[in-house]
Design brief:
about 775 residues, two-stranded antiparallel sheet, 4 strands, about 0% strand
Length: about 775
């Protein structure tokens, strides 16, 4: 019990729940004061319970629960009721949707939509062909034609004179009047005219009944023809038979007339309303007035366009574009008046002054306008350029002198003035321009070109070098490509020395050390492709200075000189090349070949002698010397050279050239004698074996030749020409079976050799059969 009492005391002495209200279980609700509920409402005030005063969350604004706090319990309750409403709505939704669909179908059955009425016709459109579709008339054509017909149906009352004339024409006369009796009854009454017989008075008889000639339909037609002829005469020239109407251009002009459709007219009306709103709401907006005027111009209402732009000029008097548009819409004479008014409003507008000058057809008046403009706006570069272009050279020089004072920042003015001045004055002008605009590279380049044009080539390099330093001090850093483009322009402008100086200064900008050779060679090739060999020569010069021991650079530079330089420059370059790269045999040979082709055989020999000293064991040098002597009919010197070459180099090619030289000279014994030690030195060189077999066959030693080729196929079993030569030798001596067996053995050793299969197919079918020719393609069965 004691423990139970302790637990009960602990439970009753604990804190109450958060939502606990004392006495709530027995009906106690507490009390409130006036401070809790606020001031009382007036008794006569009515509560607004309309839909507009209802809020989905808090109910009516006059709700009693409006001022109460919204706690967690209220939120839970709202969530529960929302779920209940959603569940009830879900249960009723299917039935509600079905009911709505039924009511809608019932309504559409009574009053269907237009698209539903023509649904079957739309589905049938898929059966319409393209030709039938093209022949369908436009929707508004019938309505237009009917309206036009109704407009053209005009009924005018017939005049009494015309009715009287018709009556008289149908009238039958039974008696002669007094005048007819006097004339013998020989006048016949005809409507509108009278025709007398010969012998009568010959005068026209007035119409009976008092009808006047104005009612004569023939006279009306003649009058119409007269009016048409007058109009056509107005279009004629003073010379008879000529007309100002172009028969070809007339139809073209008619075709160029634009017939606006109803859709375009509607768009124009919408745009007109929109632009009218723009100009009325913001009258100071110039583009709105311009757009409105151009819209009227497109619509063909030029007068309205001029009126609109005139209003725009009043509203935007400080907008030069509006004034220019107004001048464009006017005739040339009226445009001058408009621009004169514009200049009064905006005297500093350069565009208006230039437009006013362009309207003047007289050159003197145009100069006068531009000079007046320069008085008002002396710091406009465009005005100065336009005015100077109209002046002769002497006056242009004077005006340029004034221009560089008014606009000292205009580089083109300084350069133009320097071109018009003499050499000394041009130097002064460029020096002054350089002081005024130290950040402009064109001034330095022009100065260098000036010195080059006057023969001071040494100063050109100094000017470009100084330009590079000066621009760097003034924080002007041009890209490498920009400098190269300037150099290209200089070379094409007949200033190659300036171009080379620029290339030397700029070629190393922004290039990594390991990429210099590759990029410089690419730049040289691109410049040559663009027609700038002097710039490429400058790049090669820099590259040779940087890489003096690179044989590839010397070779490319020599090839460039050979293509774009002179023999003297190429010879000088090759001499420099062999001094830096004495082991480069190709450079020695290029020099010797150039000398030989120019006819200087002694010079070629001298170069080859120097090459011998630098490369005593060079096979190419020895063979080049032998070729030089052989081509110049010096066989003994060629033999001596080859003998020395066999001692010093002793390569396969040297031995072979020695044998071929003796063979070409007709010394077969000497050639066979040389082949002995040659094969001992190089037993696996198959060309020597073939040479020996060939020489033995010429000498009639067929057995020796067969033995030589037998040794060759053993020493060089993978050499296809040796097997072919052995087979052809056997075939030539009638041993076709042996030749076929040799080719079969060769095909086993050389499975991928097509020539062996081809030669086997060309062999005769049998030992006694006809032998296939050299060009035969018959295959063995």
């Amino acid at each position: 019990m004691s423990s139970l009492g302790a637990r009960g005391a602990k439970a009753y002495n604990g804190s109450a729940p958060s939502n606990y209200v004392a006495g709530l279980g027995r009906g106690a609700t507490g009390f409130t004061t006036r401070s809790d509920i606020g001031p009382a409402r007036a008794t006569g005030e009515e509560t607004n319970l309309s839909e507009s005063n209802f809020d989905k969350f808090s109910g009516y604004s006059e709700s009693l629960a409006q001022g109460l706090p919204y706690d967690d319990d209220d939120e839970v309750a709202d969530t529960v009721w929302s779920e209940v409403d959603a569940k009830m709505d879900e249960r009723r939704r299917t039935r509600r949707e079905d009911k709505l669909k039924q009511s809608l179908d019932k309504f559409r059955a009574v009053r269907p939509k237009l698209q539903h009425q023509f649904g079957d016709l739309k589905r049938e459109l898929q059966l319409v062909s393209r030709e039938e579709w093209e022949t369908l008339p436009e929707p508004g054509e019938h309505r237009k034609s009917r309206a036009a017909e109704r407009r053209n149906e005009r009924y005018m009352p017939t005049p009494d004179t015309l009715l009287e004339k018709a009556r008289l024409e149908q009238e039958v006369h039974n008696s002669l009047d007094t005048r007819q009796m006097i004339n013998g009854g020989m006048e016949t009454v005809v409507g509108g005219s009278a025709t007398p017989f010969p012998g009568s008075a010959g005068s026209a008889t007035p119409l009976p009944g008092g009808a006047t000639p104005l009612t004569d339909l023939k006279a009306i037609g003649a009058a119409r023809n007269s009016v048409l002829s007058v109009k056509l005469d107005q279009m004629s020239d003073s010379v008879s038979g000529q007309t100002v109407v172009d028969p070809k251009g007339y139809l073209t002009d008619l075709n160029s007339v634009k017939v606006s459709t109803e859709a375009e007219i509607g768009d124009i009306k919408k745009a007109r309303l929109l632009l009218k709103s723009v100009t009325q709401t913001n009258p100071g907006h110039g583009p709105g007035w311009i757009a409105a005027a151009r819209l009227e111009e497109v619509a063909g209402k030029l007068v309205a366009a001029r009126q609109i732009i005139r209003e725009g000029c009043r509203a935007c008097a400080a907008n030069e574009d509006v004034w220019l548009e107004a001048a464009r819409l006017q005739t040339p004479e009226n445009a001058k008046v408009v621009l004169a008014d514009a200049i009064k409003k905006i005297p500093t507008s350069v565009k208006i002054w230039l437009q006013a000058a362009s309207l003047e057809s007289n050159l003197g008046m145009r100069r006068r306008v531009l000079r007046k403009a320069l008085e008002v706006v002396p710091n406009s570069v465009k005005l100065w350029q336009a005015a100077i272009d109209l002046e002769p050279p002497e006056d242009a020089r004077v005006m340029l002198g004034r221009a560089v004072e008014c606009v000292p920042h205009a580089v083109d003015m300084w350069l133009a003035l320097a071109r018009l001045e003499s050499y000394q004055n041009a130097r002064k002008v460029l020096n002054k321009a350089r002081e005024t605009i130290p950040t402009e590279p064109q001034i330095w380049i022009t100065a260098a070109r000036l010195e080059e044009a006057n023969g001071n080539l040494e100063i050109v390099d100094k000017i470009i070098e100084k330009a590079s330093k000066s621009l760097a001090l003034h924080s002007v850093h041009l890209e490498r490509e920009q400098w190269l483009s300037e150099a290209e322009a200089c070379e094409k402008g007949a200033a190659p020395r300036t171009a080379q100086a620029i290339v030397r200064e700029a070629i190393g900008l922004g290039v990594e050390e390991e990429d210099r050779k590759r990029m410089w060679m690419e730049d040289a090739d691109s410049l040559v492709a663009r027609g700038c060999p002097e710039c490429a020569r400058a790049i090669y010069a820099v590259a040779l200075t940087t890489f003096p021991t690179k044989k590839s650079v010397w070779v490319r530079a020599a090839q460039h000189e050979k293509a774009h330089g002179t023999r003297e420059s190429l010879d000088a370059l090759l001499r420099r090349a062999v001094s830096y790269c004495p082991q480069a045999q190709v450079l020695w040979l290029m020099g010797a070949k150039e000398k030989w082709q120019s006819g200087d055989v002694e010079g070629a020999r001298a170069i080859l002698n120097e090459a011998f000293r630098a490369n005593p064991d060079s096979e190419q040098v020895w063979l080049a010397a032998q070729k030089l002597e052989s081509e110049n009919s010096q066989p003994e010197r060629a033999r001596k050279l080859l003998a020395r070459a066999r001692e010093r180099a002793g390569t396969e090619r040297v031995w072979m050239k020695s044998v071929t030289l003796e063979r070409d000279l007709g010394e077969l014994e000497s050639a066979l004698a040389l082949l002995g030690p040659a094969l001992k030195a190089h037993p696996r060189f198959w060309k020597l074996h073939l040479l020996k077999a060939q020489l033995e066959s010429r000498a009639g030693q067929h057995a020796a030749a067969r033995e030589t080729l037998a040794r060759a196929v053993k020493v060089c079993p993978d050499c296809e020409p040796v097997w072919l030569a052995a087979a052809r030798l056997e075939e030539a001596h009638g041993a076709v079976s042996k030749a076929r067996s040799l080719l079969e053995v060769a095909r086993l050793k050389r499975t991928g050799a097509p020539q062996l299969w081809l030669q086997a197919g060309r062999l005769p079918r049998g030992a006694g059969g006809a032998r296939g020719g050299a060009g035969s393609t018959t295959l063995s069965s």
